[in-house]
Amino acid sequence: MPMRITYLLRHWGGYERNRDYLRSNERRNATILYTALSKLTADEFKLLATKYRTGVLSGEDPKTGIHLTDTPMPDAEQAKQYGLTVSGMRQARIKLERKLSRLALAAIDDIDIKAGAKLEQFKLERDGLYIQSFSKYSGTVMTLTSNKKLAKVWHKADDSVQDGYRLIELLYHFKRVAVDDSNLLS
User: Fold this and answer.
1) H or E stretch covering 65
2) pTM above the 0.70 mark?
3) Does the pLDDT of residue 102 top 90, yes or no?
4) Most buried among 38, 79, 121, 129, using CB within 10 Å?
């Protein structure tokens, strides 16, 4: 899944200002961003905060009147603050955003694994494909589908299939997802 880290960074100030009013997907995005940011050094954190947490409000939600985003500081202005050339500032920022993007992807995996572990019933998904059927008796045989509705529903408490879904998770890197989208992390 490609990570548009600048989307999360532009919303950083909005997540802080509106933390009591965030919808579930916004809370999830904020969790991803804060988890990734927590892995940065203080100097890296400061560089991104200077760029994206400006307090210059933009992106007002017409339904709620809440400003969801901040207008980022221009590279030229930030370069002046740091005593760098504009191209040097831009290169440093882009390199740091790539690092943060990798950290955010790792955070997404951790969040999804924790959420999946709590599900009593689930489907197994990888890259938009779901397990439709599975057999491990004559070698491992799986049928895949891109239609989530056709995917096999696994039950955590069913001892007879625990080895099967654990094998799929470990060897084939499938992850647990909610049977329906109403069970998603909130």
Assistant:
1) none
2) no
3) yes
4) 79
